[in-house]
Every structure is written in C-alpha cells, then in structure tokens.
Amino acid sequence: MTNYVEFHEGDEPKREEVKSDGSYVEPTRSDESKEETLGENAPDEATERPSERNAIGGVFVLNEGGFKPPKTLVFVGVLVGLVAVFVLSKVWEREAELARFVVQGNRLQKTEEIERVASKFIGKKMSDVSLSDIVDSILTLPYVCRAIATKELPDAIRVRIEERQPVAMARIGDDLKLIDEAGYAMNKSGAMSETGRLPLLSGFSKVERDSATGLAKLNGAEAETALAFCKALRETRFARLVVSEVRVVSASQLQAFAASGEAKFLFAKGDYERQLERFEAFWKQVIVKRGVKPFEYVDVRFDGKIFAKETEPMAPKRKSQN
Questions:
Q1: Whose CA is closest to 29, among 37, 39, 21?
Q2: What string of DSSP letters covers 169-210?
C-alpha cells in the first residue's frame, strides 16, 4: 500500500509527496493557484514583452525597438516631403530676386572682377536667371578655365572657379605674358607674384587667337612638347629653381638653359619626370662642383646615361713677330 502525505497551500514549510519506495514528487500547482500566488505581481497587458505583441489594427507594430510605422507609411511621408520641397522651390524661384554671388576657388582672378562681369544678372528673378549665361560671362576672364554655378536659397548663386595654371612666361608681340599648360596667354599684371618662379618660353613662331575666349594661344603642334615639359618642371623641387629658359627646337626636342651659364641641356619628348631626375642628379654631382660654363651641352635624353661635352678652351693668340 502506497502512503502519501497531503500537501496544502498554507502548510509551512513545504513538504513533498513521499512514495512508499522512498522517492519524492514535487507538488504541482493548478492554473488557479498560480494566479492566486502571483496576485498583484501578475504581468499587466501593457508590460508584456514587446516581441510578443501583435499588430494593433494593422497600423503600428510593437517590438523591442518600440513602435515603428510600416515601410509604406515611411515611403509616403518621404514622397510627400519631396513634393512639398519641389513646390516651395518653384514658388521661391518665381518670387525671389538674385542679390549676390558667392565665389570660391579663385586665387589669381580677383573676386571683384568675377562679380563685375556677372553683375548684369543682379536683380533678375531667380527663375529667369540662366546659369549657363553666367558661366559664359565668367569664362571671358583671362585666368578662369572652368566655372560651375548653382542657385542657393534665398537669393544667391554660388560660383566655383577653376583657374588656369601658368607654367611659363612668353613674349607675345611686345608684351610678356603668362602661359598656361594649354598654351593660352594671359596678362602678367599683379598675378605674377602668385605664380612663383617660371621659365621663359622661347623658340616658337606661331601664335593664334582663340575664338571662344579671345585669348592669344600658342600653336599646339609646335609648342606641345615645351608646354608639357614646363608643366612637369613646375612639379619639381629643385630643377624649377635653376632652369630659367625653355627653348622650342622642334616638335620632339627642346633645350633648357640655366641663368648661370650658356650650357644647353637637351631634352626629348615624353618621360619628362625621368629626364628631370637625371638633370638634377648631374647638377648636384657635377655642376655644383665645376659650374655650368665648362660645358657646351648636357644631354639627358637617354635612360641611364648622361652625355656632356665640355667647352673647348680657346687657343691663346700668338704674338706677332716683327
């Protein structure tokens, strides 16, 4: 016969059911007893785990991150906002007038000059202002290579300038001009102090007039090699300080001269960085010790080799005998 010890909820301490075979059975509670035991500690509906909540009315979903609107509502909200911005921008363009320019990127070309050529657009309705017309006006300035114009609230146009970069000087007619890497000639004026040391470009004969800008321009076929060399020369730290003149010999050959002597340095078309490295090496190892005058020419056109010809000493004059 199996003996049991009854367990009552109010008994203290708790007792387990004891079977006749000596094993124990943990007493179980009914659902009703659980509710009575929990009492006020029972979880309220509002404090249930968020991940266990279902969608409410198909509008909001409660999850561990809080209430979130469905993706459809987010998309609709963004779309409505974009439409509103577009409509307001059109209203703004019809009513607002251009009052000022914001100029960026210029260094050689003065801001006052840029504002002057674009001043004819001041006072016009923003909707009537053509950005391409503004850019065309600014491109007539000598140092401006490219320009980008954008409208900004409430009454401004921002102009971003990209200037021509002078790489040499050249004598065009009776004037000394700055020459950019594309061969355009610009007035030297007060901008010379901003360009640093530049070599004199010589030996060319053809100067054309560019129809778009009205600027004088060196013939590309004749001066292309020299212009590309001058651009590479400007990127060096040492060579640009000693080369004072670059002379066009042909479309594939040029000569460079230093201010301290008449020796010619011979360069070929292309691979200007390597040729200038050989030029700097010869200058630092030989010219610094012996000077430029003892040499008639120095040829740096060949990879791994530098050929230099020394100046032949003049024979002393023989004294005449009576």
A1: 37
A2: EEEETTEEEEEETT-BEEE-GGGHHHH---PEEES---EEE-
Reported as type and span, the H/E element at residue 156 is strand 156-163
| pLDDT band of 214, cuts 50, 70, 90 | confident
Domain count, the chain: 3
180 in the same domain as 248? yes
Q: Are residues 88 and 107 in the same domain?
A: no
- Residues facing residue 160 across a β-bridge: 104, 148
For the whole model, what pTM was predicted?
A: 0.61
Confidence of residue 292 (pLDDT cuts 50, 70, 90): confident
More confident residue, 4 or 94: 94
Same structural domain for residues 305 and 171?
yes
What is the full DSSP assignment across 107-142? SSS-HHHHHHHTGGGTTSBTTT--HHHHHHHHTTST
Look up tokens 């090699």; give the residue: 225
Looking at the chain, list the stretches that DSSP marks H as alpha helix, in order from N- to C-terminal side.
31-38, 71-95, 111-117, 131-138, 192-195, 220-234, 239-242, 272-282, 288-290
Residue 38 maps to a domain: no
Domain that holds residue 129: 97-163
Give per-residue pLDDT as tens, 139-190. Answer: 988 889 999 999 987 889 999 999 988 999 998 888 888 999 999 988 765 5
* Residues 161, 105 contacting (CB under 8 angstroms): yes
CATH code of the domain in which 117 resides = 3.10.20.310
Question: Which of 114, 132, 163 is the last residue before a domain boundary?
Answer: 163
Nearest to 280 by CA among 265, 260, 302, 294: 265
